[in-house]
Design goal:
Blueprint: E1 2-3, E2 6-7, E3 10-11, H1 16-21, E4 27-29, E5 40-42, H2 46-61, E6 65-69, H3 74-85, E7 91-93, H4 103-109, E8 117-121, H5 129-137, E9 141-144, H6 152-155, H7 158-165, H8 167-174, E10 178-182, H9 186-191, E11 198-201, E12 205-209, E13 215-218, E14 221-224, H10 231-245, H11 250-259, E15 268-272, E16 275-280, H12 286-298, E17 304-309, H13 318-330, E18 336-340, H14 342-345, E19 354-357, H15 360-366, E20 376-380
Parallel strand pairs: 1-4, 4-5, 6-8, 6-9, 7-8, 9-10, 10-11, 16-20, 17-18, 17-20, 18-19
Antiparallel strand pairs: 2-3, 12-13, 13-14, 15-16
Helix pairs in contact: 2-4, 3-10, 3-11, 5-8, 10-11, 12-13
């Protein structure tokens, strides 16, 4: 079934005929001029129809839906929850980060009569978006990974982020559903105040180490993961707590967590040509940048280089937040710091080992001067910077 969605630079109605010729059974359109025969279903608004159909499908399945949002770690957490629950249940989860007003409906519509638990990731860069997405998915369970400095431009600052992400709690409380809350996160506890159905977690897990990989104690057993950085400890704890709640055995939970290997440029550990690389170039905001740099600084490796790209969607805070990161790296014990992008290029520090490049192309053209050998890298920046391209230069 082809849905003729529209965007700023395209009109899906114009592709309806071609979709049918290539095998689609029906084409859902919202412009009458394109309706040729009974295979065309004319509606007022294709996007709203897709969203309404997703909610109808979700209701007809009548299965538990777990929804999650947060400033950082959403996709990794979603993947961990999915791999844990799939040890016992037939699960269906958001693919990649299809977590917006189109991705959430597509996630719901991908679920079948065989699905026993659905896991829906929800992203947002403005207030009211999480409220809108929860009204589509109608989750039974929800969680917020954290509140951080992400999408500050759209949310209107950190307080706006907290308010916007907390729409998850508001929806679940209104419908008498259940939330999972990290009892070590005082801000989450505050935002969840007055909630009756809370599953607290955190007390049964203890972080043992975070470099090069996170190891933690769960009850009386040690879990050795393929995730780097203390910031991933909370993501792991969430997955463990949800596994316990849904009565997945401890052994299966441990096996699932230990078998998970991150990909898609998220905290990936890569060895290439004698270099050891932490590739975290899928996304970046001030909160995640501080966490990644703090973890990198604590690694006991020698010859460490951080290549950092601009952080996007910070609005009027962009200048101050990039300067704050530049000041922070100024005090770290790193051998080389490379800042890439217009925002970082306009920062000022006194560190003699900081090099600035206005664009990735500038970095690429100058890369031969570095003569890197057996180097430990942290590569991190917003998606638009595409810093994974550095791998091709090494």
């Amino acid at each position: 079934m082809f849905f003729a969605l529209k965007g700023e630079n395209f009109n899906g109605n114009t592709f309806a005929k071609n979709a049918l010729e290539q095998g689609a059974s029906f084409a859902v359109i919202d412009e009458e001029v394109y309706q040729i025969n009974e295979q065309y279903i004319l509606v007022d608004n294709v996007l709203k129809t897709l969203q309404a159909l997703a909610t109808f499908h979700r209701k007809s399945l009548n299965i538990p839906i777990i929804a999650l949002t947060g400033s950082n770690g959403k996709t990794t957490t979603k993947e961990l929850i999915n791999i844990v629950l799939s040890k016992t249940y037939n699960t269906s989860a958001t693919i990649g980060n299809l977590n917006n007003h189109i991705g959430v409906p597509l996630t719901l519509l991908s679920m079948t009569n065989a699905t026993e638990i659905g896991i829906v990731e929800m992203g947002a860069n403005h207030q009211k978006e999480i409220a809108f997405l929860t009204n589509i998915a109608l989750p039974d369970y929800g969680l917020i990974t954290n509140f951080g400095k992400a999408h500050l431009e759209g949310f209107g600052g950190l307080e706006g982020v907290i308010k916007g992400k907390s729409e998850m709690y508001t929806h679940l409380k209104t419908h008498n559903k259940t939330i999972f809350v990290n009892e070590n996160d005082q801000l989450q506890i505050k935002q969840a105040g007055g909630f009756d159905n809370i599953v607290h977690f955190g007390s049964q897990m203890n972080l043992l180490k975070s470099q090069p990989y996170v190891n933690l104690r769960f009850k009386d057993q040690t879990i050795q993961t393929h995730l780097t950085g203390a910031y991933n400890f909370n993501n792991i704890c969430i997955a463990i707590a949800i596994g316990q709640y849904f009565k997945v055995s401890d052994g299966q939970i441990i096996n699932a967590i230990e078998s998970y290997i991150p990909n898609n440029n998220r905290s990936q550990i890569i060895d290439k040509n004698g270099h050891h690389i932490i590739l975290d170039a899928y996304n970046a905001n001030p909160t995640s940048m501080y966490a990644a740099l703090s973890n990198f600084n604590q690694l006991n490796n020698s010859n460490k280089t951080a290549i950092l790209g601009d952080m996007f969607e910070l609005g009027e805070d962009a200048k101050s937040e990039h300067q704050a990161i530049a000041n922070y790296v100024n005090d770290l014990s790193l051998d080389q710091i490379i800042l890439v992008g217009e925002n970082f290029y306009n920062t000022k520090t006194k560190h003699p080992d900081i090099l600035y490049f206005n664009s990735f192309l500038d970095l690429k053209n100058a890369f031969d001067i570095f003569k890197f050998k057996n180097t430990m890298f942290l590569i991190k920046g917003s998606r638009g910077m595409a810093l994974e391209r550095v791998l091709d230069l090494l």
